[in-house]
Amino acid sequence: MNALLIDDSRLARTELRHLLRAFSEVTVVGEARHAAEARQQIAALRPDVLFLDIHMPGETGFELLASLEGPAPRVIFTTAYDQYALQAFEVNALDYLLKPVSETRLAAALAKIRPLAAAAGAPAAEPEPALPTLAAHDQVFVKDGERCWFVRLADIRLFEISGSATRVYFEQHRPLIPRSLQQLEARLDPKVFFRANRQQIINLHWVAGIAPWFSNTLKISLREGPDVEVSRSQSGLFRELLSL
């Protein structure tokens, strides 16, 4: 698997590159010192996995991930701070390594990638028939543990990643369903449901207000909450789609 090291510390990149030499299946194809450089490297090198620092000049590692368009590489965070672990797993990070990175923890993180890499190299299975797109007036069955609902899509204001599942916001309920945002986005009407960022899809009919936010992004307020920050790339798309 091809790896890209993203860290503003040259010493940290050098130490990690040295550790990775013990793992023959990993090839370090490049290094980046900050988010802008990383975006160029990702586009040019198409790495399978990012070893990503969180605190960097300009943009954080989280902001870098939110700005990427299309499927992002697998991510293993490498940081000196432990308080961002929950946020890291909310963006589907494979692992969260505290500096100084030990060879034992690095081996455990790489062990999580091997099955994914093997699956990616396996012969493609016959594609399943595409499910039809759901309209806003359609009703869907939602089950969370022992509780069940039959709810109209029009009444769902937000889908939000929560760990390995997706949280569904409607009325006062917040059930979790075992679906990814990619699976949901493929069946939702794009005229009604908009992918605001890597973690959230909003129902445009529930938008109560829009405000400019940091770095030319947008902040959207939904009726009955919550507020949603639109990523930089999606903010541009939002303006383009909904402007006269």
UniProtKB/TrEMBL annotation:
Residues covered by the Response regulatory domain: 2-114
Domain spans labelled HTH LytTR-type: 142-244
Protein name: DNA-binding response regulator
GO molecular function: DNA binding; phosphorelay response regulator activity
Keyword Hydrolase annotated: no
PROSITE patterns: HTH_LYTTR, RESPONSE_REGULATORY
Keyword Phosphoprotein: yes
The entry's keywords: DNA-binding, Phosphoprotein
Transmembrane domains' residue ranges: none
Top-level taxon: Bacteria
Organism the protein comes from: Hymenobacter nivis
4-aspartylphosphate PTM positions: D53
